[in-house]
Every structure is written in C-alpha cells, then in structure tokens.
Amino acid sequence: xxxxxxxxxxxxxxxxxxxxxxxxxxxxxxxxxxxxxxxxxxxxxxxxxxxxxxxxxxxxxxxxxxxxxxxxxxxxxxxxxxxxxxxxxxxxxxxxxxxxxxxxxxxxxxxxxxxxxxxxxxxxxxxxxxxxxxxxxxxxxxxxxxxxxxxxxxx
Length: 155
Hints:
The protein is mainly α. 65% of the residues lie in helices and 0% in strands. It contains 6 helices and no strands. Helix 1 packs antiparallel against helix 2 (20-32), helix 3 packs antiparallel against helix 6 and helix 5 (88-113) packs antiparallel against helix 6. The longest helix is centred in the middle third of the chain and has 26 residues, at 88-113. The protein starts with a helix and ends in a 15-residue tail after the last helix.
C-alpha cells in the first residue's frame, strides 16, 4: 500500500500536478506512517506518548484551570504549538480546542452580563465539562470530534 501511494505521488509530480516540495512533504508523511495502516494509535510518540494519548491529554488539560486560573488554556496552547508543524492531528485538535475556549468564553461573558443568564451559565458550565470528557475519550479512541456550539476563529 505504501509503495502504491508513493507511485501515485511520483506520477502526480511527473505530471506537474504537485510541486517537488509538496512531493517531498507527502512522501515523508507516507514513510512516517510505515507499518500503521489501521490505527493512529502507534504513530511517532509525542513526548513519550502515543498520538491518541497526547491528544486526550490536550483535551483534558483544560481542567487544569480549576486548580490554577488560565493554566487550562495555556497548557493546550503549548501542547498544540510545540507539535502542530510535525503532526497534522495535533494541529487539527489544537485548533478545535482554541476555538472551543474562545467560543465558550464569549458565551460565558454574554451570559454573565444578562441577569437571567446566571442559570444558563450553570447549564453552559455543565455542557463544558461533558463535552470536554467526550472529546478526550474520542481523541483517545483515535477519533476527531468537534465541540458543539464552537465558532471557528482559527481554521
């Protein structure tokens, strides 16, 4: 399968459909996935963790704000920025997490301003906790799941 992909990639380069730079980048991705046709679980370790474990911790690290204010925003950003250029899944999940945090901060601020919004703020908090856990579980299973009610600020 890997050799078929490389052959197709070489043909695309020969036709001029992709540049040499794109060819090299895609070739490196194909070769990096050697021996991993069925699962993302065993990709190159990130800080000693498998990709799925790393992604799960990116999502769960948002709970750190309960201990130290704003650290739950800083940790996922650091995890994302340190590996976004070398791992497409980290980049995708990181953008999802950043968009989620910005969106829910806006919703929280809007509900805090409105007097009737206090009960809704409690509901938003419960939703926040539930979707964080769901996203972490799905990430650990190798799935990508977009947080609900998230505005895509970073694409």
